[in-house]
Write a structure and sequence with these properties.
Number of strands: 10
Radius of gyration: 16 Å
GO molecular function: metal ion binding; metallopeptidase activity
Bound molecules: zinc ion
CATH topology: Cytidine Deaminase, domain 2
Largest sheet: 8 strands, mixed
Number of helices: 5
Distance between the termini: 13 Å
Strand order of the largest sheet: 9-8-7-6-2-3-1-10
CATH class: Alpha Beta
Protein name: Mov34/MPN/PAD-1 family protein
CATH architecture: 3-Layer(aba) Sandwich
Domain MPN: 14-135
InterPro entries: JAB_dom_prok (IPR028090), MPN (IPR037518)
Strand content: 25-35%
Order of helices and strands: HEHEEEEEHEEEEHH
Keywords: Hydrolase, Metal-binding, Metalloprotease, Protease, Zinc
Shape: globular
Structural class: alpha/beta
Amino acid sequence: MGLFDALFRSSEILGIAEETLEFALESSEETHPNEYMGFLRGTEADRLDLDRDGLVITDVLVVPGTETNSVSATVKTNQIPNDVKALGSIHSHPNGVIKPSNADLDTFGRGSVHIIIGAPYRRTDWKAFDSQGKPATLNVIDVDLPDTEDFFDFTQADIDEELRR
Ligand SMILES: [Zn+2]
């Protein structure tokens, strides 16, 4: 399968990589009492040696310029790079309430899965929601993540090359 197909195939979200979830929980704890906030990116399941079609959430992109305080994390949308295709978002609630706020609901329309992590950030202190803010099932998948170095290194030149074939 070429890069072109990988980019344009419509994909189901199969779940989140265990390592990625653990990373987000740890980051939320480190950020406490401020909010942790990022966007979720995925990897094609077949690149993770899973014999399935779809995407696994493998990456949290923390947006530069996110202003955090103990009340809310505000993302300046003009600082999100255009080439980022986010599957959804992830953020923490230092007050421990794992429920979308009204402000969260306003932003959930972008992307299809939204994770909220609550203090005290244990392995079970998170929930996934859909774009309407309704609880959603998100599997945790134990996969080996490839070396990030070459993995997310798609450039426009790679894409152009693929389109020329
Ligand atoms: Zn929130």
